[in-house]
Queue: 2 jobs
Job 1
Amino acid sequence: MRIGIVGLGLMGGSIAAALKPRHRVHAYDIDPAAVSLALSKGIIDAGAKTPEELFGAVDVIYLCLYPRAVALFFERHVDQLRPGTICVDIAGVKAAIVDGIRAHLRKDVQFVFSHPVAGREKVGVAFADPTIFKGANYIVVPTPENTQEALETVRSLAYEMGFGNVTDLSAEEHDAIIAYTSQLTHVISLSIVDSDDGKFDTGRFIGDSYRDLTRIAMINAPLWSELFLENKENLLARIDAFRSSLDAFEEMLRNDDLDGLQQKMTEAKRRRSLLEKGK
């Protein structure tokens, strides 16, 4: 199969590297240096100087763009796509872009909404790493316009990349759960770092707990600020729920409630253990 990548950042480069062993991979990026680097590192087979050049050479196109750019790119170029092309987005929000895309669909072009729930704290194709997908979760958001063949193609490619689970969700379901499992965790990580009062040389005193909790504070700010705002209502609801839990811990501390703290910890440990068992 001939795979196209639009946007050779960390994710676009990692998808290219993951699929290249079995497919011929072409890529386009507004920065020619990114394409040149991907070619020199063997991440892609061929580079395109224009989107139109890419469209004519591939069967499946991954749009590895920021959420607000996905619909704009598709609207601008949809008329140039070859009949039978499957476009796949990988944005971390869905409801905000699905309607915009569907309004411009062609009957002879498929658009499959998806989200590879994986990444790392680096930016750019220089840090592309297909191992970030190994055993990770991949979400597909079917729409009424999708054929089963197009959906199965995207699911199959996800498994080829190394993902361990591929799950179908509606756009609304996707945004609700991602607000909790991804966006809230980034808010918490950022808040932990932001709350440092600066009285100590923090780096000399951290252990694995601080390191693990704050790893994702090494964030791509332009991307994540957009993700937060495009899923604002869901994220605000999750922040409220987290604040309620934090308030409960604070109240137990103020009241020296040893039993309450232990019960809260034990229940959280039980629920976390179930995640490891896939339940």
Job 2
Amino acid sequence: MKSYKIQSPFVLVIFGASGDLAKLKLFPALYSLAEQKRFPNNFEIVGFARTPKSQEEFKKEFEYSVKKAYKNATKQTLDNLSKKVHYFHGQYDEIKDFKKLREYLHTLLPHKNVETLTYFSVPPVTFKDIIKNLGETKEGKNENLKLILEKPFGEDTDSAKTLFHFVARYFDEDKVYL
């Protein structure tokens, strides 16, 4: 079976990076992809969360999560991946933090047309704030920004429909993954 390797540069922003889902599932999955050599040369991973912590603290948490999931994690792969991992502290309901995030992302990968993937590893109650702030700080309709929304998407059918219509105010359907 042939492995698919991502060809284009990208930035993955994980909202809720200090939470359990990120630590238990996302960080180990990212390691697994790195171990399989599926990432391009130019990529960065940014954990965004409300909890204040240093870059070093976040990298240690990332590495601990991987080692806990993969007892035989290779040092070289984990070290190489850790160099691509960054932390950004901010509030989900503060547009100023999203403007700072945008500036920070440009310093990591300043190339044009870099795909930005945003993974929502947060409670549904925070979705609207994040979506609104991402939508209001994006750099035009053609920006390559995609949303990956973790379930549950709303609390019931009606709230899910309402949330879907809210997302559509800011992002085209082809930019949203549920």
